[in-house]
Design brief:
With 381 residues, this protein is an alpha/beta fold. It has a single domain (7-353), classed as TIM Barrel (Alpha-Beta Barrel). The chain is 40% helix and 18% strand. The protein has twelve helices and 15 strands. An eight-stranded parallel β-barrel has the order 1-4-5-6-9-10-11-15, surrounded by eight helices. A two-stranded antiparallel sheet has the order 2-3. α11 crosses α12 (338-353). The longest helix is centred in the middle third of the chain and has 19 residues, at 128-146. The radius of gyration is 22 Å and the shape is globular. This is Alkanesulfonate monooxygenase.
């Protein structure tokens, strides 16, 4: 059976990186030089784009993407569009500027936010569903400006008069818009205003349930929408190596850290998606395999995407095909540390998926430690 190629993105760890969760051992600080290393590596390896996260603990995604766009060639940048944090007109000017600077390599990830405490720090004091209502107005104004309209708009959350965008975009009528939200309000926003609906890595049955709900809403509006999934990856040549790497990743995580993180996710946040992530394992180390090759260990201490596909290239490819069969066409991956794991995914998993860039190798007659050519190897010391 043949499959369409999966769109495969990676992740820029603008909040820091490391080899162990819950520990400062072998930790890498969030520095632009390191982001550049990751971005240039995935650009060469054949990843189509990168997600840049957003939040108080992250370097700004717009500024970081602007810097990385100047040192990469093909890579697309999925940056955070934050309704309520900036005005829609200002966001439209930012969008046009970065779309031109990157020569059309900009994608937008709408982030409404699911942590009221963090949102309060940004001056946002709206209840859950009201934030999606505000985002709908924001995206209406923003999209119309990018389409070249002069906008007059009066709504519950925004009022603009004679608003316009004087600079054109490379992508018309606007760059593609991605969005993830598990609540009814979030799914409504997705089908009304965006192009691709993202889900975190739940078991296939849970993902199928969400896709069916979003498709039904879209059909009722006479629309179609694409689907993507956000996952971590631990791919190794053998299954034993892969699961050993998963265990090693959380080997420094303490029970106290798990308890504190789970309390924050379930009590402080009003994100439906975060509650679904936490419910997969309930904070228990003995409940981390939530579906074949799907491991929830990352979610013990990390908010948001908390699951990883763990296994051999063939096993992980099979799991991705299962997601693809229910409608997923885009994967946004990551792994710790992100530089090394990008190479592992590209070198091990991409061939099993039919992805990657074919590269010219050394001639068969060249003799070195990676390949023996046609001549006898000379003795060396």
């Amino acid at each position: 059976m043949t499959h369409d190629p999966i769109n495969f993105f990676w992740f820029i760890p603008t909040h820091g990186d490391g080899s162990y969760l819950g520990s400062e051992t072998q930790q890498r600080p969030p520095e632009f030089g390191y982001f550049k290393q990751v971005a240039q590596a995935v650009d060469r390896l054949g990843f189509q784009g990168v997600l840049l996260p957003t939040g108080q603990a992250c370097e700004d995604s717009w500024i970081t993407a602007s810097g990385l766009a100047t040192v990469t060639e093909r890579l697309k940048f999925l940056v955070a569009l934050r309704p309520g944090v900036v005005s829609p007109a200002f966001a439209a000017r930012q969008t046009a500027a970065l779309d031109r600077l990157s020569n059309g390599r900009l994608l937008l990830n709408v982030v409404v936010g699911g942590n009221p405490a963090e949102l309060a720090g940004d001056g946002i004091f709206l209840a859950h569903d009201q934030r999606y209502e505000q985002a709908n107005e924001f995206l209406t104004i923003w999209s119309r400006l990018l389409a070249g309209e002069t906008v007059d708009f009066t709504g519950k959350h925004y009022r603009v008069e004679n608003s316009r965008l004087d600079f054109p975009l490379v992508q018309e009528p606007r760059p593609p818009v991605y969005f993830g939200g598990s609540s009814d309000a979030g799914q409504d926003l997705a089908v009304d205003q965006t192009d691709l609906y993202l889900t975190w890595g739940e078991p296939p049955a849970g993902v199928a349930e969400k896709i069916a709900a979003v498709r039904k809403k879209a059909a009722a509006r006479g629309k179609t929408i694409r689907f993507g999934i956000r996952l971590h990856f631990i791919v190794r040549e053998t299954e034993e190596e892969a699961w050993a790497a998963a265990d090693k990743l959380i080997s420094h995580v303490t029970d106290a850290q798990i308890e504190a993180a789970q309390a924050r996710f379930t009590k402080e946040m009003d994100s439906v998606g975060q509650r679904r992530m936490a419910a997969l394992h309930g904070g228990r180390r003995d409940k981390l395999v939530v579906s074949p090759n799907l491991w929830a260990g990352v979610g013990l201490v990390r908010g948001g995407a908390g699951t990883a596909l763990v296994g051999t290239p063939e096993q992980v490819a099979e799991r991705l095909r299962e997601y693809q069969a229910i409608g997923i066409d885009t994967v946004i991956g990551s792994g710790y540390p992100h530089l090394e794991e990008a190479y592992r995914v590209a070198e091990l998993l991409f061939p099993a998926l039919g992805l990657g860039i074919k590269r010219r190798g050394l001639r068969q007659t060249i003799e070195n430690e990676f390949g023996v050519g046609g001549r006898k190897l000379a003795a060396s010391s």
